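Dear colleague,

Following up on yesterday's call, I've attached the two folding results inline so they're easy to grep. Please treat them as preliminary; we haven't cross-checked anything against experimental data yet. The first protein's sequence and structure tokens come first.
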Amino acid sequence: MEQVAIVIGATGLVGKALVNHLADAHHIGKIITLTRSSAKHSSSKVFNKIVDFEHLDDYAELFNADFLFSCLGTTLKQAGSIVAQRKVDLDYQFKAAQLAANNGVEHYLLVSSSSANEKSNSQYLKMKGELEQRIKNLPFKRISIFQPSLLLGQRADFRLGEKLGSWVMSPLCLIPWLRRFRPITGEQVAAKMVLVSQQSGRPLELFCLDDI
């Protein structure tokens, strides 16, 4: 039976690749992308809905599906402050997950980050860890969390830090004990997410870099 998938963060590096993979997936009959501005797609499976993430409760009826793929995220530079970044990376994502869980969505798939930890000294890793912990308390039948390292791929915005990181980390990760920090492409993460959605699994699954 064809199923319905919701994607938030569909205009980002992983999200764009994910929508493309879902459009080609035989088990998915409909894809709902929830975005802040228009995001058209060539596939007839894809239905784009423009929402105000500040007022997601107003769009609760849209969170009816079999899957919620959560790829939403921003950078400190784009957000302008840690407070603003937390709103996108933590608050918006958690509210979307709550609405989905309340509507009976069974499988939640989250793009988190390597070394995510709610007790981390890094504000970024801390917010990712906090989100993971909050999500685990929601009544989804299945939760799949993906923890990639530095993400590579063609973005709409140029990120100097990521470019420099890819140049530095790629050769360094030839050293065995640094391999867990090696970069990965958004395409690889998206493909793994779709594969996981096709297979049965445990109620809570964590996919680190090697698993992806």
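Below is the second protein, in the same order (sequence, then structure):
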Amino acid sequence: MVLEVNGVYKALGNRPVLRDVGFAVQSGEILGFIGPNGAGKTTAIKVILGLLHPDAGTVRIFGNDIQKEPVKALAGVGAIIESPDLYGYMSGYDNLMQFARIHGLKREDVLKAAETVGLSNRIKDKVSKYSLGMRQRLGVAQAIMHHPGLLVLDEPTNGLDPDGIIELRAILKRLAADGTAVLVSSHLLSELEHICTSVCIIENGVIVSRRDLGEAGSVGSRRLPRFELVTDDAAKALAALTAAGYEAAVSGDKVLFGAERGSVPEAVRALICAGCNVFGLSEKKETIEDAYLQATAQQAQPVYNGGDFR
């Protein structure tokens, strides 16, 4: 396991910020770390990187305890926390060279990192002349330049234009495919849909959900697929599906039910035999937003979880 967080507790003053936080990230995994403002995301990331000391619990990176062996633990880590820490009076190239010298990297590594994030044509300009998005790109270049085994990103799309966001997606997917473990925190759930292979949800300093993703944009691939039915009589359709053995519920003027894809034609036949008019039927994939709202008790409509609706 690349990253292991176990039983971490952290208080700031008299206020508990993290309470028994625990999760893990393995090689090739992109874990989305999400939660409302003040939930403890940034504090957790700072503890993981050794910037804050936990009051209890442990963090291990490649088996090295971040408190006892910080140099070994952080040797293979790249990170951006909130915003890149850059020297504005220096060029982008010189900023990267400062970092390169620490890790024993060469000029070629700097130029390659700049090319990867799309900054080759501006890498010799002073950072003070960079836009917010360009600064963010330079921060990503610095974080990935030494080919880290663990990449930790806090709001990495901050300031990026649409092209930059798309490029960052491709970079993260490529790194994960090469075995890098990625922990990414973001408020943009729609962006996480495109890249994450798992999601960890924190609220009030507590991990409330840790779920693997199926296809991009779908949560819990081992659950029964969920379908949405459009009909002129939701109550009659609900009764017909229930009688046929399907778990179903009414949501507004539609009916939701869970079924294996191969049994959907049977469900439609049961509806027609019961005299229901079927105007539309579509599969509803549970998204990261669904998982977030469900885990934080903000979901207004019922969510099918493979067993019952709640």
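For the second protein, one point worth flagging: Residues 19 and 261 are 41 Å apart (CA to CA).

Best wishes,
A.L.
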